[in-house]
Specification:
Elements (H helix, E strand, L loop, with lengths): L4 H29 L5 H4 E4 L2 E4 L1 H24 L7 H12 L4 H5 L5 H24 L4 H18 L1 H5 L5 H29 L2
Antiparallel strand pairs: 1-2
Helix pairs in contact: 1-3, 1-9, 3-9, 4-6, 6-7, 6-9, 7-9
Length: 198
């Protein structure tokens, strides 16, 4: 954690950059997912359930990577963070591996195990990716990432209790905006603190 006044200001600016990246990515995700003529691309119906497709999962991963890239680019241009390209590409490859998660757990386990295992693996991959980039491990942001990944769907489901028929696409969009923004800020914190401790 930066202790000087300039270090704290850099941390605040960096976190604002990552917050901005998460919000922009979330808005773009919302615009894409809520288009009525594209709903069949993102969701399918099985009996009376409306379920997300693989394409929605890939879009989610892509938009999250865009959010991180935007936050990192803004922070890099501001001189707040800078890591070697080889480490960034390694971390990106690990995050890209998250696209394989639905295939591993969709049919092989029950819904509760699938929910928990997918989120544990997501948080682990994100932490390992950040460790790969920074060569430092921060336990508090890692735990908070797991909490965000588990709690974001629960927070996003609150409007469903208030609005009689909250559309699935808006639930997915709200869930992504919440998770993406919070995870970007936590990732930004990890990167900025690691860079200031080098």
């Amino acid at each position: 954690m930066p202790t000087t006044q300039s270090g704290r200001k850099a941390l605040q600016r960096g976190l604002a950059n990552f917050f901005f990246g998460g919000v922009c990515s979330g808005l773009l995700f919302t615009i894409i997912v809520t288009r009525p003529h594209l709903l069949s691309l993102w969701f399918y119906t099985q009996e009376f359930w409306i379920l997300p497709t693989w394409k929605l999962w890939l879009l989610t991963i892509g938009m999250f990577l865009l959010a991180l890239a935007l936050g990192y680019a803004l922070s890099n241009f501001g001189g707040i963070v800078a890591f070697p390209s080889s480490r960034l590409l390694s971390g990106l490859a690990l995050l890209g591996a998250t696209a394989l998660l639905p295939g591993l757990f969709v049919r092989s386990s029950g819904p509760i195990i699938q929910f928990v295992m997918t989120r544990l693996i997501l948080a682990s991959l994100l932490s390992v990716s950040l460790f790969t980039v920074t060569r430092q491990y921060h336990i508090v942001p890692a735990i908070l990432m797991l909490v965000v990944i588990i709690v974001a769907p629960l927070i996003a489901s609150l409007p469903d209790g208030l609005i009689q028929s909250f559309p699935n696409e808006w639930f997915e969009a709200l869930k992504f905006v919440i998770a993406s923004t919070l995870l970007c800020v936590l990732s930004g914190y990890w990167l900025i603190v690691s860079y200031s401790n080098r």
